[in-house]
Every structure is written in structure tokens, then in C-alpha cells.
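Practice problem: Thiol-disulfide oxidoreductase
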Amino acid sequence: MRKPEPVVIIYDDKCSLCRGCRRWIELHAIQRNVFEFIPCRSEERRRRFPELNDDVCVQSFQLVLPQKQILAGDTALPEILIRLRGYRWLQILFQLPVSKACLYAAYRWISNNRYLISKTIKPLIQE
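Answer key — C-alpha cells:
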């Protein structure tokens, strides 16, 4: 099986939950450098991806595929999963209508409440 090409994840670096997710993704990546992480409010993001404004970036993480296609939030999760050791099989859940709807609702709730969640779990996530 061919290894997936590297992708860019644009994330909210002001959110401790988002930073924790970044570290978790890095730890489980199938290989080094399969993910590049760029903070959503950074000059680098503005320069490389001017089509993404700050408001769009902070609503949900953005995934930029090698073909420059941009996926946001829950629609990007299957692309991330295929690049993780031991979690690839979970992408099947995104192909089933019922689980896809539940996963979308769960992602939206977490995304909309991530700062509150971050405050709650902050002691559990080292900065």
C-alpha cells in the first residue's frame, strides 16, 4: 500500500485542546513529516493560504491536501486517519451515514465548545 502524501493542518494554537490534538496526531503519524502544522492566526498561514481568513480558521481546523484542496473539520478527519498508525480503520465510520451524522454532530459540539473544554482539561494537558 502506498503511503499518503504529506498534508498541512491549520489549527487554533490559542486552544490547549487543539494543541493537545496536534501533539497526539504527531505521535501517531505513520511517518515523520506526513503532517505540517501551521497556526491559523500566523503570518505564514496568511502568506501561504490567503484564501483562508482568520474567521474560517478558528471555526474548525483546516486540512490542505497536496492538490491544494482544503477540507474543514469533520470532513478532514478521514484524511487524517489514513495517515495515523493503528487508526486507519476508523475512516470506515465516515462512510456509514448514521455514524457520519453522529461524528459530525460530535465534532461540531466539541469545536463550538473547545475553549470551555480546554479550561476544564487544561491541567491534564501540559503547555
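Discussion: The chain has one domain: 7-122. Students who identified this feature from the C-alpha cells alone can consider the problem solved.
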